[in-house]
Amino acid sequence: MKEETMIKAREWSMRVMYILIAAALAISVMITAAPAQRVSASPGLAEWSRVSTPTTEDWVLAPESTIIDYALASDGEVAYAIVDKVEGSYHLLKSTDGTATWQDIATALEAELHEGEYIDELLRVACDTADPDFVTVALQVYDGISAFGVHVCISDDGGASFRDADEVEAGGVYLNLTSDLTVSPEGTDGMRHIAISGYGSDGDSAVFRCRAIGDIATAWDDAADTVDYPGWDDQGDAAPFTSVLVTDIIFSPDWENDRTILAVTVTGTGPYTVHLQTGTLGEVNGAWNKAAGLVSAVPVESGANLPMWLETWDARAIAGVALPSDYSSTSTDTRYAWVWVNYIDPAHLSGPNVGEIFRVKNALHTSVNEQIEGMPWLTNVSYWGTIAEGKAIAGVLADSDDEPLYPDDLMKECCEGVQVYRNAGITNMEICCFDWRKACKPPTGMTAMAVSYVGEDKVYAVAVQGFEAYDEGAWSVSFDDGDVWNQLSLIDTHIYYLSDVAVSPDCDKTMLVSVNLDHGCGYDSVWIYAGEFPEAGYGEYSGHWLRTWCGQLENSYGLLRLAPEETHGESVYLVDAGTSTLYWNDMATLSCWETKRAIRIDCIVDLAVRNESTIYVLDPAGNVTMSDHHGSAITWTRPVPSQVDESWTMTVNGDHILVGGQNGEVSHSDDCGETFAELGKIAADGYVTVAFDTYFDQNGIVYAALAGAGTDNGVYRWVTGQSTEWEDLGAEPYDYTGLALDGPWVNPMTNPDTGGVLYASYINGDTTGVARCLTPATDTCCGGIDWDYLTAGLTSELFYRMPGALKICGGLTPDSNTELLAIDCSEPYDMENGEAGTVWSFEDCYAKTSLAPTSPADGATISADPRRCVNVPFTIKWERHSDASPYDIQIARDAEFTDVVVDLQGYEPPAGKGARYALGKGTLSCGVTYYWRVRFVALNMGQAIHSWWSEPRSFTVVQRRG
User: Which domains does the chain have, with CATH numbers?
Assistant: First the structure.
């Protein structure tokens, strides 16, 4: 049955093959071996524990969500967002760590409602960018019978509490549709102005304003109710000039001096005219344009066919405004603005769609010289800098199922991202020298991408108003003016399982591949977590997960491999297993990915990295090809048969390569893969994982671990140039799924004779763990090799995510520990809490530990009975280890302990400060020099784990003559 299952598995896709192999292994072992005894989990050292992975906690993952609106502090550290998690379920979120995590503060809003009322819809959010503790939220309330009008709630304590500023209404006119909400900076008098726009119950455009000190607000007034002239007539008495919608509003950066607000309006009944309006707001009311002592409303685009159907989705998608930092209405020389308009080319009523940016200088408007290629519709434009010099990023409005929002050749889906465009060469608010450039790694999503500068180089991209569940929309960040984007949070994706984990040698960076089988777009992801990000800009996200790749793996199975010589894990390879495609990133997944195709093979089974520029790929037939790339130049060698007919795993060490097969075969190359020689078959069947000893360059030892081979399962050793058959190292016959050894020259206890510390992940029926051997290269003729089975802390996990189920890091200095990582495959990934299908880690605190003997002193003499020539009673002593007990004690006639005369195992010494063992009279003969040593064999919390033997001490039993 097992053989038939595995033959079928090889005929299917790589993803199915890996999953079925794992299942077959689990079934086969339940038949051939009894489950290992479980060690109960308890707090302490050397236990398995879950690695924190991306979950819905803190809104890192936000499946089936839509970001409706957001507001930012000027530096982006504090942010607010309105999220529709499931249709009709609204959340008001706040972040205080640069949008890495969020907390829902909607309960404070709900507390302000009257009994029987609840939030029907959250509409807009805005804050004081200089003091984000002042935040406002526009919402609609429902009392179970009907929806009330639009209310605005105000908080001056960062959302801990809110006060209702009442329904937005003035003079009998109510706000019917909300397009935008904005807050002025705080004045010297402590007052702020709050403005909200859209259109009113009379069908005309509207801007309502109230004033607030703290969270106490005045009544609303209609900031445009006296306006009646071409460009903005909200009286309804001149149809061609009636303003029907305000799409965007913004307070002047020089608010303290000019008290100015700007608005973009739509006038007419179609075709339409888009105007930029400039007004001033006094303490009682305001005035607009010429009536405010400024200029007439500026007609930015006339006779346009506008996508007015977007007003119920987000009216800001029709037209908007952006200002330089030194805008001021106090001078004609500082009245510079950009207005962007989305319209349908008048010559073609059904298209093409055009997104155009206009420069407005005082009363003059001109189309910006250099438009974005293809002129796609724009979500918004974010400008950073002054009138004289600046830069900008534009977010694109993508597509929906209902309306074509821009040309088909620009349409993107899901992880391909909604493109953003950047321009770093702006002078005088013109674009005279530099084209708009696409991002090389766009933010993810499929509908609309809003962008916001929050620093000189730092920008957020927010996928707003999505149409689909699991559409990969997210909150993304860039630190290079919008060229490279990585996702921070609110990521609308699904994780079904994790297919691989990688860890940098210094253990600082952990990377994951997650697979989404069938939810929404079905796109897969790569994630990274770092205790400390040394990469420029990303340091503030140390200790947080970021998504750094999003795409569709053809067989839903990705492998991650790192360059072994790079301590911090800069060079990363992502393999689309079962295809010829792999991806390369030279900034620990954070930069843009380069696609590499193994053009000489069709299917990659495994990949081995020699160094950051040299890799080897293996196909199912056992062929190996090498790529050696420098910069953008990529070359592949001709495929070389490895002598393994059905291959499974591969590893590389300098000029040497090992290939393991699916039928117990192993082959070796010592010339960089130009030729291979079979090392001999371990078993008739079985999946082989291979590894080089830490000291391979000196001892020539390699290892192979078997899975799916029944009673032949185990860990085996071969000495290149010497062995004629594989030597069984005596591990239990479990299914071994991964091999790892500690790094070279960092463990003072190891040497070429002992070999590096060897770890092998295994499954044994419904149990799992890692087998550990301190001395895998030691000759096994005298007592065999000791194995520990590390299971403490585990419950029902299974470590069979092959190939390469076990990863290792750390131990780079003599006094640091090694860490192991493995993926739990027992259940699908738990997106909510990360308690199933996640990554487990084990820190081996004792791989460099030995005990210190204290008595007798090295070279001491022990008295012998004068009549019998045997020792008198004496005691050996050593420093008790605070975490460990019991102990093994050996006394031998030679320093190599080949002639052992006392072999005491599992000894529990009596209580006391130090540990001791009393030897009775007559145990040892006189006239002989003995050697003794001690080690612990288990931890107090229950994990069986050996320390190293202590350094041998000698003593001589001497008969003294009277």
Answer: 31-36+44-51+493-844 (2.130.10.10), 853-958 (2.60.40.1220)
